[in-house]
């Protein structure tokens, strides 16, 4: 089967750093996506990791360890607009089927 | 221009009714999807089409029938609506091969009363 776990909610302070973890168990793993979804809106792409290691993109970084079935999204210099749900998603080999986790709701407070 | 557009955005209907949601993408992608997001915000794939052909059907009740007249359109028809069908339905598209970003429509909020 397949399973994706991430915390349900997190709270952090504006200007701080927050790390959102994701663990997964799946067959046919190819890579891992992170998407951001603001309330009432569609998910939008943040990052995609295929190889182990950290990939940095501005204030957001994403890490992958294939051997451990583990990823995290790191958000630096938090802003109020970063309050959203962050969805971890597994990209499976063969294409056509990306499996999403339940998402982590991040609340950024002043 | 909206890349993936779906209509209607909001839909309130009674149990037992039949309704359709339309979706179109102008990105030239080969693959289109329907996802369902329930009240717990869990985003679950329902169907995947590649070049008008059904690729994935994730144990969705056969009251749900997708139709793809061409690779730019994927419509969703739902028969005999039930209370549990209330959710947000997202249409999406991607180039189709592994590792490509999925682009979502704005969602259709379906409420069955």
Helix content of chain A: under 10%
Q: How would you name the oligomeric state of the polypeptide chains in this document?
A: heterodimer
Derived from helix and strand composition plus strand pairing, the structural class of chain B reads mainly beta
Q: How would you spell out the order of helices and strands of chain A?
A: EEEEEEEEEEE
Mean pLDDT of chain B: 91
Radius of gyration of chain A: 13 Å
Order of helices and strands of chain B: EEEEEEEEEEE
Strand content of chain B: over 45%
Largest sheet of chain A: 6 strands, mixed
Work out the helix count of chain A: 0
| Apparent shape of chain B | globular
Q: Hey, which two chains have the biggest interface? A: A-B, 26 and 25 residues
Count of distinct strands of chain A = 11
Describe what you observe in this structure.
The complex is a heterodimer of chains A (110) and B (113). Chain A is mainly β and 110 residues long. Chain A is 0% helix and 60% strand. Chain A has no helices and eleven strands. Chain A has strands at residues 3-5, 9-13, 18-25, 29-37, 44-49, 53-57, 60-65, 70-75, 84-92, 98-100, 104-109. In chain A, strands 2, 4, 5, 9, 10 and 11 form a six-stranded mixed beta sheet that branches. The relative contact order of chain A is 0.35. By secondary structure, chain B is an all-beta fold. Chain B is built from no helices and eleven strands. Chain B has strands at 4-7, 10-13, 19-25, 31-37, 43-50, 53-57, 64-70, 73-78, 87-94, 103-104, 108-112. In chain B, the strands form two sheets. In chain B, strands 2, 4, 5, 6, 9, 10 and 11 form a seven-stranded mixed beta sheet that branches. Classes of the chains: A mainly beta (110), B mainly beta (113). The interface between A and B is medium-sized, with 26 and 25 residues.
């Amino acid at each position: 089967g397949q399973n994706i776990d991430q915390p349900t909610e997190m709270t952090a302070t504006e200007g701080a750093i927050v790390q959102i973890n994701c663990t997964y168990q799946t067959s046919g793993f190819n890579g891992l996506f992170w998407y951001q979804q603001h309330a009432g809106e569609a998910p939008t792409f943040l990052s995609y990791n295929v190889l182990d290691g950290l990939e940095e993109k501005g204030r957001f970084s994403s890490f992958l360890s294939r051997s451990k079935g583990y990823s995290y999204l790191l958000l630096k210099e938090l802003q109020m607009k970063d309050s959203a749900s962050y969805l971890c998603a597994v990209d499976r080999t063969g294409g056509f089927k990306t499996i999403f986790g339940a998402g982590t709701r991040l609340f950024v407070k002043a | 221009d909206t890349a993936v557009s779906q209509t209607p955005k909001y839909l309130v209907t009674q149990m037992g009714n039949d309704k359709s949601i339309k979706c179109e993408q102008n990105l030239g992608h080969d693959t289109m999807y329907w996802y369902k997001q329930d009240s717990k915000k869990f985003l679950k794939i329902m169907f995947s089409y590649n070049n008008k052909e059904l690729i994935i059907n994730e144990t969705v009740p056969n009251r749900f029938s997708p139709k793809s007249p061409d690779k730019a359109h994927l419509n969703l028809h739902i028969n005999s609506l039930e209370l549990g069908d209330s959710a947000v339905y997202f249409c999406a598209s991607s180039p189709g091969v592994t590792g490509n970003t999925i682009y979502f429509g704005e969602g259709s909020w379906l409420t069955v009363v």
